[in-house]
Design a protein that fits this description.
By secondary structure, the chain is an alpha/beta fold. The protein contains eight helices and 14 strands. The protein has an eight-stranded mixed beta sheet with strand order 4-3-2-1-11-12-13-14, with helices on one face. It has a six-stranded mixed beta sheet with strand order 5-6-7-8-10-9, with no helix packed on it. A hairpin with a 2-residue loop joins β9 and β10 (216-220). The two termini are 34 Å apart.
């Protein structure tokens, strides 16, 4: 285990240098994509950055903060596994959030723990989702931590635990105002709400994906930490990925206009971009634009 951490740490140092250069060029990437001319995003009222599965990768928060500052993101939603083992040792690695520039909303994942929740509850910028509706920048958000985050030992939630958590969320939805967005960690908790909430965010799979199901947009941000140590040791590269959400405000509701999936590839020293455009009701299906750019 010691050798694994040492090897991973050396890799992270080199990776940070590559990502610093690539993230600086993100703005020019977006300018190139705007030239595709599919949609005018000048009238966007709210930008939300969806991240997930950082897995204690110190480079990830550097990347997230660069995207926040470059694209004037209003707030971040993290769908869990910000740590790898949920251990008290990892609390110190979350100090980057102490002076975070925008609100940071999080639904803890199965790799997190009560110790992590206790620490994050003391961080001014952080809002922990605990099964209650919160409003950030006017967006109504409902979310809850993964059932396994209540344990000190990292594991996945048992089927019965997941069913109970889903039932609890359904009760909340039945008794409360409809949220604009639902944030949970696992797909198992997300999918039962397709057709019931306009936008559903989750993670856990480490593979970014956007789907429209029964009128809901379901977004998996993949892994903003490239799966942590496992990703560094993997034969196949797992990219750093995150999704930038563009909302417009109507008279009485928010509408998700577009979602930009950004993937950074360390070994290839390049990055990919996919913009998914969501049509207004009655205007047709979603469209996508893809672009891949080599590194500098």
């Amino acid at each position: 285990m010691v050798a694994l951490f040492q090897e991973a740490f050396v890799g992270v140092k080199t990776m940070a240098e590559h990502i610093q250069v690539m993230s600086i060029n993100l703005y020019s990437l977006l300018q190139k994509v705007e030239d595709l001319g599919q949609v005018d995003l000048a009238g966007i009222d709210l930008k939300v950055l969806h991240v997930s599965d950082i897995h204690n990768n110190p480079v990830a928060l550097d990347l997230v903060e660069r995207v926040v500052n470059t694209f004037a993101v209003d707030f971040v939603i993290d769908t869990g596994d910000i740590t790898d083992f949920g251990s008290p040792l990892e609390v110190g690695l979350l100090s980057r959030l102490d002076d975070w520039p925008v609100p940071y909303v999080i639904a803890l994942g199965n790799h997190d723990s009560p110790a992590i929740a206790k620490h994050l509850a003391t961080v001014p910028a952080v809002t922990l989702l605990k099964g209650e509706m919160v409003e950030i920048a006017g967006l109504k958000i409902l979310g809850v931590s993964d059932p396994a985050a209540q344990r000190e030992v990292m594991t996945t939630a048992e089927p019965g635990e997941m069913e109970a958590a889903v039932a609890q969320l359904k009760e909340l939805l039945a008794s409360a105002e409809e949220p604009d967005l639902l944030a949970v960690h696992e797909q198992r908790m997300a999918m039962p709400f397709a057709g019931k909430v306009p936008v559903i965010l989750h993670g856990h799979s480490h593979s970014p994906r956007i789907q429209e199901i029964d009128g809901s947009v379901v977004i998996d941000a993949g892994t903003c930490g490239a799966a942590g140590i496992r990703g560094l040791q993997s034969t196949d590269e797992i990219p750093y990925s995150l999704v930038l959400l563009h909302f417009s405000k109507g008279e009485d509701s928010w509408r998700l206009v577009a979602a930009d999936t950004i993937s950074l590839y360390y070994r290839q020293a390049g990055f990919g971009f996919r913009r998914t455009i969501f049509s207004a009701p009655g205007e047709g299906d979603e469209t996508e634009d893809d672009a891949t750019f080599p590194g500098p």
